[in-house]
Design goal:
By secondary structure, the chain is mainly β. Helices cover 14% and strands 37% of the residues. It has a domain of 25 residues.
Length: 49
C-alpha cells in the first residue's frame, strides 16, 4: 500500500524544520498585564520583507 502525504496543519505532526520555517523573528515582546497568574504580552515581529 502506498503511503499518503500528511495534510495536517497540527504542529504535533510537523517536523522541527517545518515549524522553524514558518516562525517569524520577534523584534520585541512587552508584558502588558498579569491577571490571575496569566501573563498578557504584546508581540512585535521583525519585518522580513
Amino acid at each position: 500500500m502506498k503511503k499518503r502525504k500528511l495534510n495536517s496543519k497540527n504542529p504535533k505532526y510537523r517536523s522541527e524544520a517545518q515549524i522553524k520555517l514558518e516562525q517569524q523573528p520577534i523584534a520585541k515582546q512587552i508584558l502588558i498585564k498579569e491577571v490571575k497568574g496569566a501573563k498578557v504580552y504584546a508581540t512585535f515581529y521583525a519585518n522580513t520583507n
